[in-house]
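ARCHIVE CARD
Drawer: 12
Card no.: 0347
Subject: one protein chain, sequence and derived structure
Cross-reference: see card 0346
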Amino acid sequence: MVLGKPKDKRLLKVKPTKEQLEETNLLIKKKIGKLSTSIKIPPAVNQFKTVLPQETAERVYALFSKYKPENRKERFARLSKEDPKEGPKPIITKQGIRHITRLIEGKKAKFVVVANDVEPLEVVLFIPSLCKKFGIPYAIVDSKKSLGGVVNIKRSCILALCDVKAEDKSEFDDLVKISNDMFLDQYEHTIKIWGGPGKQKLN
């Protein structure tokens, strides 16, 4: 008698309802909130609690939106021309953590914007230190959805500009100055401050 392989009897998983998912997400947020006030938060993580004011962040989104990547219709219209590469190279908002990391290291990025609600935060944790090392202006905002809306996707953890048009130069310089006053120039100070209970400064 030849014995076959035992059948793999897997139990069917019941798909959670929308209410159950919302309840689970709420529970996770409560746990994160309690942990954030009960354990010490390293300075590298704690610095992401400082974000641009909403009014300034809206100005940043508006500026970056002027250079959003082309959509399908625009791309089709460009490729339909006799010479798709005709004219000057377009200035567009850069996205993608690896791509922007290379732009920072090559000192090609002129302004970097990072979201602080990225999960896991380790994905963008090194960006402020990298920007400080290469002297690249950066800012932290509180919404990856807002960054994603700039480049026609749901969410984006980081965006960058390598250049702007002449008519946007004054607005760009003003936003860079505000961001530098909050982040780049304060880096040495913020990287010494712990978060959580009994906040303390490193010597």
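Annotation on reverse: The mean pLDDT is 88. The radius of gyration is 22 Å.
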